[in-house]
TrEMBL record:
Residues 42-71 are annotated as: Disordered. The keyword Signal applies. Residues 52-65 have a biased composition (Basic residues). It holds the Pfam family WD40. Residues 411-438 form a coiled coil. The lineage of its organism: Eukaryota, Metazoa, Chordata, Craniata, Vertebrata. This is Uncharacterized protein.
Amino acid sequence: MEFAALVALSLLLGVLVILVAFAVGRRKEELNEEIKQAEEFSAEGTAVKGPASKKQRQEKHRNRKEKGSQHTFTHQLLASTLKSHSGNVTCVDFSSNGKYLASCADDRTVRIWSTKDFLEREHKCLRANVELDHAILVRFSPDSRAFIIWLANGDAIRVFKMIKKEDGTFSFKAATEDFPQKHKAPILNIGIAETGKFIMSASTDTTILIWDLKGEILSSINTNQIVNSYAAISPCGRFVGSCGFTPDVKVWEVCFGKTGDFKEVTRAFELKGHSAGVHAFAFSNDSHRMVTVSKDGTWKLWKTDVEYKKQQDPYLLKTVPCASSDGTRVALSPDGRVVAISDGSNVAMYNTANGQLEEELHGVHSGEITDLRFDINGRFLVCSGDRAIRVFHNAPGYRAAISDMQDMLKKAQNEGMKQRLQQQIKEAQSALDTVLAGSVSKRT
């Protein structure tokens, strides 16, 4: 019995050992299989994920590179490109003495450039920082010793004084207080009258405000144009004009007494003739001419040197087809000979005497042109957009001046006058030839 029991126990133990060995072996195989699957899964993940992540890194790097790169542009008339801003440039303005160009951007700075450096390789500028905000508009004071800006977030005007140092450079000091917030809609434009008597601000509703230099409101104008698209002060400092949804431009006179005290704002005249809303307008330097550009696909030139107080209306001088769109800008050269019109990132330049399209500049900026204006001498046309400011030679202006002098030469009867005109024609032609022969390789 004992022997039989021992044999049964031995067999039982043997079976248990076999079962355990089998279970261990089976589990080992399962573990090996799991490890193998894990390795295969890991390899597959690396094969798929690895190159994708590398591609993503390359794409991120490329996006950063593309974001940091500057839009390039070349043209025979391009005099220079001003590039110091690290943000999008929203506005430019020339000082009345012609020495400086101010620009503002969303990089929280205002830059002051010297116009005498426009034709140099290097374009140095002075920087004024806009604390805790950035400027979307900038305008010089008449004495060129201060400028005002419109604060993007503060929705108000801030005044900066330009303090000249012994070395000839400037430091900039902001006024202790900004103008009060009065507009209820986004701002369109600001300006300082050349007389130094008032400041204007206009918003996209139907509001134009007239301020004194200390930030007190002198008058509020309701343009009754449903919405405003543009407003500006005339170069002579007497008028304020506005345009918008309606097919006209309205012009008011801001009146002051003999002692310099503000009197009133009165309606001066209107420019009527477009068949659709007006995008923008511009004055000649003497305010005797105006140009308007409309949604109806035309620009018009007007004679505004009229006796409006005797109910005399401005004369329509010319209507010319053109491309335009929302955001279109227009500039009239100081002598009234050239009209420049922006359409998106393009600029067209026309001769006002015959309405001929003189120059087409395509893709000047990577995006929409934000500002467009001639310098006070009419030598250059400047436009802003993206992070650059383009400076162009006003070749159409040279051509128009030469044509006018040639006409005068034909009519001249005095020999001295003929010689002066011949000399002026020669100098103008030489300047134009120099511009057209200039190399563009250094101006990208």
